[in-house]
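User: Some background: our group keeps a shared notebook of sequences we're curious about, and every so often someone picks one and asks for a predicted structure to add to the entry. Today it's my turn. The entry only has the sequence so far, pasted here. Could you supply the structure so I can complete it?
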Amino acid sequence: MEPEQERPEDQMEEEDRGAEPHTCVTEPHVMEEDEEDEAYCVDGYPSELFRALKDFRDASLLTDLTLSTADGASLQVHAAVLAAVSSHLRHRLRERTEDSSRIHICLGPEVDAVGLAAVVEFAYAGVVSALDPDTVQRVEAAAGTLGACRVVELCRRPGRGEGEPEKPGDRQKEEQEVTLRAIEKMRSDKVGCDVVLEAIGGSLHGE
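Assistant: Of course. Here's the predicted structure to add to the notebook entry:
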């Protein structure tokens, strides 16, 4: 049997790399002289992350914020995710004391169950699936009260609120990326971080 032919190193590296990714994570390894970091990449990382967070929310895992409306609705969410789209909630998180691990906010009559659910959906999915002439004003009112400017902009976009459902696509991915960057910024500023992972040599604040 003929010995297996070795592939050139450049060819192996190109094949292993695959298609150009969206988000990259560098895996640490022992470095040889003149050797560069090898990046292992995952395409669609933001959408997978927010899908997992939604599953956590549906199961009430690690939720630390309860939002209640005057019409009796109540939603448990992750404060950092909602604060990433809501300036009002970001302000509340900045004022939160270390002793207060959970937040309960009762919203005024201008925010109803439909509007609140739409803002929450946008925070986790980057899209509002049900905007029509019957809901667009309620969604915009809730978004305006919460300081969710991107949702307000979505409601005012030409063609929205006219019966056309929001379709997932490039814009949804962009919105999720913006939300993820906002969460990362809050973590770096230690806003909404109520978990500290400690190890020899330092500590890491998490949501």
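Suggested note for the entry: The radius of gyration is 22 Å. The first helix runs from residue 9 to 17.
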